[in-house]
Amino acid sequence: MSTLKTLTLVILIQCTIFTESSQQPKQKKVNGYGDNVFNVIGFGAIGDGTTDDSKGFKQAWDVACNSSAPSPTVLVPQGKTFLLQPLTLNGKLCTSNPITFQIDGRIIAPSKAGAWQCRPNCDHWISFRKCDGLLIKGSGTINGQGSNWWRLSCKNKNKACPSRKPTGFVIEDSNNVEMNGITFEDSPKMHIAFERSTLVHAANLTIKAPKNSPNTDGIHIQHSTNVSIHNSIIQTGDDCVSIGNGSKYINISNIECGPGHGISIGSLGINGKTEEVEFVHVRNVTFHGTTNGVRIKTWQGGHGHARNIKFEHIISHASTRPIIIDQYYCPHKHCRNQTSAVEISNVTYEDIQGTSSRRIAVELSCSESTPCTNIIMKDITLRYKDQNAHTSSTCLNAHGFRIGRVEPNVPCLQKHDNL
Ligand SMILES: *[C@@H]1O[C@H](CO)[C@@H](O)[C@H](O)[C@H]1NC(C)=O
Ligand SMILES: *[C@@H]1O[C@H](CO)[C@@H](O)[C@H](O)[C@H]1NC(C)=O
Ligand SMILES: *[C@@H]1O[C@H](CO)[C@@H](O)[C@H](O)[C@H]1NC(C)=O
Ligand SMILES: *[C@@H]1O[C@H](CO)[C@@H](O)[C@H](O)[C@H]1NC(C)=O
Ligand SMILES: *[C@@H]1O[C@H](CO)[C@@H](O)[C@H](O)[C@H]1NC(C)=O
Ligand SMILES: *[C@@H]1O[C@H](CO)[C@@H](O)[C@H](O)[C@H]1NC(C)=O
Ligand SMILES: *[C@@H]1O[C@H](CO)[C@@H](O)[C@H](O)[C@H]1NC(C)=O
Ligand SMILES: *[C@@H]1O[C@H](CO)[C@@H](O)[C@H](O)[C@H]1NC(C)=O
């Protein structure tokens, strides 16, 4: 190439860069996709697993967000690995709804906790905020590289320890969100959180982290209503699903849970707080060696309620506490007995079968001042796993009914055959 040609080319490129950066980010042509598909590769993402691709993702989102194309789709293509620093994609001012986020490739976080660009607080890794109409789907994987965080102890004021560990994937202040098919692995803390959102439907998810990874809940629901979670496999070091304050109309079904801590409502009422959860329906769930099966846990001294809850068609394979209500929840073991409690009422357990790894398969520990009421058990058979022998129950301040076969016997519930 002659010097003159090279010079002209350099000038041309520089002009192009200049004009592009002074306007909206412009998509480079990437082969094989329609005009409504915004491939992150076309917006500067590299996908080599080491370059920070956050900017490319953000630009693809911003363009899709105001695209006039029908059903705009941000594409994270398969066969590549994208490294993301903490990233928030905001849907508040988007004119094109709904937006599809198609994840077929692999997304990873920085592997060393110290390489995260979010000091001092790392609350979230990837978050979708204020979206109305969002479909997140695909065959891809989102890996939070949590192992370095799991080792960080924050108890000894370790300098390297940030004040909070990040939740992997957050949907917040959003409506009409659907998630389908994605795999989540090794989050530093919870894998997925739905916060202050309504009409969120998740299905066909796979969530995996080691059994001993701390606080790696599968999905946490907080201040959210009309949420469903279906057909998913969740194996973690904490609750498969946990349901916190302000949540109602929650359906959870067809879940394979374990290892993990089971499906939990709560903990509610820490430090005297008023917290409430209601209308939760959990059905067709299998627990594999979990520490709890279906659990409701509240701190002493709280206010509010957990009520109108149904657990049905549950199978336990050797979980430690298949059925538990714990109104004395106190993981740090320094709790005073107090007079107030989050009120637990109208909880139905129906068709719960399988084995328990502990003799006591049913534990109802309710508050003295605020007993549990209208607890209903119907068709329960839980056997002790080792000898296929009988299990037993413990009961404290729990009232309600048992219908049909209930094994172990739960004598604090009145026998009632016509409900
Ligand atoms: C989308 O358009 C709205 C309204 O025109 C504008 O306020 C907003 O900044 C745009 N968003 C992006 C990401 O460009
Ligand atoms: C889950 O995936 C299956 C198979 O890919 C699909 O048929 C089904 O519709 C999906 N479920 C939901 C609720 O989208
Ligand atoms: C929960 O299930 C009930 C009964 O199947 C259904 O009417 C309701 O719409 C579901 N709600 C959600 C949020 O999926
Ligand atoms: C949420 O679910 C409840 C009960 O099914 C229903 O009455 C309510 O209309 C739903 N809310 C929305 C926003 O769809
Ligand atoms: C719990 O949720 C309720 C209802 O959304 C709210 O009024 C209350 O302030 C929340 N409590 C706490 C401690 O955040
Ligand atoms: C229960 O869940 C399993 C998968 O965990 C599924 O194969 C089965 O069809 C579900 N049964 C019902 C009644 O939904
Ligand atoms: C008890 O809870 C169920 C949902 O599990 C609900 O359908 C029913 O209306 C509740 N009953 C009362 C008396 O609140
Ligand atoms: C608190 O109350 C429970 C139930 O009555 C009792 O078993 C426990 O010993 C009490 N703990 C203390 C510290 O008083």
Automatic annotation (TrEMBL):
Subcellular location: Secreted, Cell wall
Keyword Secreted: yes
Signal peptide per UniProt: 1-21
Highest taxon, organism lineage: Eukaryota
A UniProt-annotated Pfam family: Glyco_hydro_28
Top-level EC class: hydrolase
Keyword check for Transmembrane helix: no
Ranges in coiled-coil conformation: none
UniProt keyword list: Cell wall, Cell wall biogenesis/degradation, Glycosidase, Hydrolase, Repeat, Secreted, Signal
Alphabetized SUPFAM superfamilies for the sequence: Pectin lyase-like
One GO molecular-function entry: polygalacturonase activity
GO biological process: carbohydrate metabolic process; cell wall organization
Family to which the UniProt record says this protein belongs: Belongs to the glycosyl hydrolase 28 family.
Protein's name in the database: endo-polygalacturonase
Species of provenance: Hibiscus trionum (Flower of an hour)
Organismal lineage: Eukaryota, Viridiplantae, Streptophyta, Embryophyta, Tracheophyta
